[in-house]
Amino acid sequence: MGHRVLIAAELQRLLEADQLAGLDVTWLPADQPTPSGDYVAIVPLLSRWVGGTELKRLPKLKIVANCAVGHDNVDVVAAEIRGVKVTNTPDVLTDATADLAWALILACARQVVAGCELVKSGTWTGWDPELLLGIELRGRTLGLFGAGRIGQAVGRRAVPFGMRILYTARNPRPEFERATGAVRAELSRLLRESDVLSLHVPSVPETKGIINADTLRQMKPSAILINTARGDLVREEALAQALEQGRLGGAGLDVYTDEPTVHPRLRAAPRTVLLPHIGSATAEARRQMAAIAVANVQAVLRGDPPLTAVFG
Ligand code: NAP
């Protein structure tokens, strides 16, 4: 009899039998509540909240191996109090997410989605010198709010586009600065000077709602906001209003406050490119995320330290 573990059912096809050796797996579909029982590990998707109530129901739990780099769906403090380790899946999704941020930057700067809709609807009337004019990125300023793994990867991709880079981070990143010419700046300068502002901080109390009516007012009316981090960094009503009133150039979003519900005003707002939380959605990244999550479980059950601990 193996160790009883709960693993998100949606990960089943990404995992090989040898990765699951020694585990007695209960596959847990996303639409089912977390059960109680003598499970020693849970591998949740980011859409599953694992808080004090869930942890109480799982008294034998040793690890929450989140299948995401963000871990705002786990009550880390409650886990720490109960001696439950929490792990995430950093690095393997950095390039995929940075690529997607760039897909959004380019799509917004060049009205890619509006152009696609025009052609597909059969309403395109021919080449026009003023049709769907966008902005050139060369010489413009990319502001990175957060310059961790993904923020820096987005910044490195900006170099061949000829963009100037500003970043806001708690700690300076001298190597990143040397490699890209990026300059560390306060958020107020980032808001004032960015032509493209891209968010790459985790959702924590200090960052929630950081893009709100007040900070939006400080941005250039032509600026593009990109969010591939977490939806609740942005006050969606205020963002929709800024777009409706022409006080912001555009928004490219992959994440939302109340997924999969998207604020109706945001869905209707002009100059938006809205994606369904697919930042890490490459076959390579998703396979490696599942593999690391389960490898963390195996390590903890062996009595080894986890590979990628959030803490503990
Ligand atoms: P990371 O390497 O930990 O970088 C996080 C950055 O945020 C660092 O620059 C860090 O600054 C900064 N930061 C942390 N706490 C902060 C705070 N309280 N105030 C201001 N800055 C703070 O994380 P990552 O791997 O780049 O991932 C970033 C986020 O992207 C994740 O948390 C996740 O929510 C999101 N994500 C989304 C997708 C998607 O599918 N759309 C995919 C992957 C990740 P210091 O280093 O100076 O502390």
Explain what the structure shows.
This protein is an alpha/beta fold. Helices cover 32% and strands 16% of the residues. The chain has helices at 52-57, 76-81, 94-109, 112-120, 149-158, 174-180, 187-193, 213-217, 236-244, 264-268, 283-302, and strands at residues 3-8, 23-28, 41-43, 63-65, 85-87, 141-145, 164-168, 183-184, 196-199, 224-227, 250-253, 272-274, 309-311. The strands form 2 sheets. The protein has a 7-stranded parallel β-sheet, sandwiched between helices. Strands 2-1-3-4-5-13 form a 6-stranded mixed β-sheet. α8 links the parallel β9 and β10. The mean pLDDT is 98. The structure holds NADP nicotinamide-adenine-dinucleotide phosphate (NAP). Residues 69-70, 90, 93-94, 97, 146-151, 169-171, 200-204, 206-207, 228-230, 254-255, 277, 279-280 line the site of NADP nicotinamide-adenine-dinucleotide phosphate.
Q: TL;DR?
A:
The chain has 312 residues and is α/β, with parallel strands linked by helices.
Please name the CATH architecture of the largest domain: 3-Layer(aba) Sandwich
Return the average pLDDT rounded to an integer. 98
Largest sheet: 7 strands, parallel
Strand content: 15-25%
Task: Specify the structural class.
Answer: alpha/beta
Layout of helices and strands:
Elements: E1 3-8, E2 23-28, E3 41-43, H1 52-57, E4 63-65, H2 76-81, E5 85-87, H3 94-109, H4 112-120, E6 141-145, H5 149-158, E7 164-168, H6 174-180, E8 183-184, H7 187-193, E9 196-199, H8 213-217, E10 224-227, H9 236-244, E11 250-253, H10 264-268, E12 272-274, H11 283-302, E13 309-311
Parallel strand pairs: 1-2, 1-3, 3-4, 4-5, 6-7, 6-9, 7-8, 9-10, 10-11, 11-12
Antiparallel strand pairs: 5-13
Helix pairs in contact: 3-5
Bound molecules: NADP nicotinamide-adenine-dinucleotide phosphate.
